[in-house]
Amino acid sequence: MRVLGIETSCDETGVAVYDTTAGGSAGLRAHAVYSQIALHAEYGGVVPELASRDHVRKLLSLVRQTLAEAGLTTADLDGVAYTAGPGLVGALLVGAGTARALAWALDVPAIGVHHMEGHLLAPLIEDDPPEPPFVALLVSGGHTQLVAVDAIGRYRMLGETLDDAAGEAFDKTAKLMGLPYPGGPQLAALAEQGTPGAYRFARPMTDRPGLDFSFSGLKTQVLLAWQQSDQSPQTRADIARGFEDAVVDTLAIKCERALDAAGSDTPACNTLVVAGGVGANKRLRARLQAMCVQRGGRACFPRPALCTDNGAMIAFAGALRLQAGQHDDAQVKVVARWDM
Ligand code: KG4
Ligand code: ZN
Questions:
Q1: Its family (predicted)?
Q2: Better pLDDT: 339 or 252
Q3: Where would I find the beta strands (DSSP E) of 8-166?
Q4: Which residue of 2, 121, 122, 264 has the fewest C-beta atoms within 10 A of its own C-beta?
């Protein structure tokens, strides 16, 4: 089954074709992402109306480009998957409307996919994919969640953030130290030049039991440290390093707890799947891999390009659902907020 995937939930237009007969990474016939970062940078954040308009401008040419790269035409498609939420409603409607129209014209089924399920399944697009049960850490700009994956489609929420998401904390912290939007990756790059231990921030909510997170207090601690510092480039790098270490440590502590809670005699306790934009963070990847290896298990990540928003994860998640016989009726329905 060849499925076209369309992602337009925020500021990235993503399109891909996934072929289930090949499977693994070979199944990903082509994928392309157009980022609107330059468009939103001058506003310091995503402007929803501009995002929708830019998706309209780019989406069809990206569909054409992706099909050409895959060596396919629309006649080769067996289904169309699109992100139905959560996200910006206007932006989601562009992808949903286009996907529905294409599916109708081609007389193939269409399916709306949960954006976070897309992220969660992205590591399965890589070779030697993990098999459920496993524990998933989803860390994006809008979500920070620990999920027990009993089977594909059977998810139990173990913990989530009570305020800012991890990516949001990266972006806000970068902004308060004067880095341009979206600051997460830039803050991470800056942290590479920082002196470890020069600044030490709290590891929020690790001193009590539980799997929930809270990152907004950390941001306030950084603000105070920044305001009281000499604000030199080296100090900025040192604070960035202190912040990154605090987030990475906090996530690692909670992941280990979640693996412990999954039970010592089940495979889930040793397999951690990490996805979402912050999953591209090098220090987080190294730390979580080391923690899992020490337990005799492994951490599975998608390649960095499939950690951040993309169409491949939507094509893949949609293909699994379509293969299982699911599809939506002809309505164009999207939702801003949606529990997975
Ligand atoms: O998954 P994603 O592309 O979009 C959402 O669904 O939110 O995640 C974007 C988030 C942003 O907050 C961005 O700053 C963060 O992921 N991010 C990173 C890195 N790359 C992207 N945060 C830390 N280190 C990185 N290398
Ligand atoms: Zn995302």
A1: Belongs to the KAE1 / TsaD family.
A2: 252
A3: 12-19, 28-35, 79-85, 110-114, 134-139, 144-151, 154-160
A4: 264
Structure tokens at 332: 């164009």
Q: Is 165:215 a contact under the CB 8 Å cutoff?
A: yes
Ligand nearest to the CA of 279: 1
Ligand 1 touching residue 86 (CB < 6 A): no
C-beta neighbour count of 210 within 10 angstroms: 11
- For ligand 1, atom 16, which residue shows the shortest CA distance? 277
CB-hemisphere CA count at 13 Å for 206?
Answer: 18
For residue 318, say whether it is annotated as part of any ligand binding site. no
Average pLDDT over residues 199-212: 95
164 lines ligand 1 (CB under 6 A): no
pLDDT at 75 over 90: yes
Residue nearest ligand 1's atom 26 by CA: 281
328 assigned to a ligand binding site: no
- Does ligand 1 come within 6 angstroms of the Cβ of 318? no
Give pLDDT tens digits for 130-147: 999 999 999 999 999 999
In this structure, are residues 213 and 250 in contact, taking their beta carbons and an 8 Å threshold?
A: yes
- DSSP per residue over 220-260, as a string? HHHHHHHHTS---HHHHHHHHHHHHHHHHHHHHHHHHHHHH
Which residue, judged by its Cα, is nearest atom 21 of ligand 1?
A: 277
ipTM: 0.98
For residue 141, report the distance from its CA to the centre of ligand 1, in Å.
5
Domains identified in the chain and CATH numbers: 2-122+309-323 (3.30.420.40), 130-301 (3.30.420.40)
Confidence (pLDDT) at 135: 96
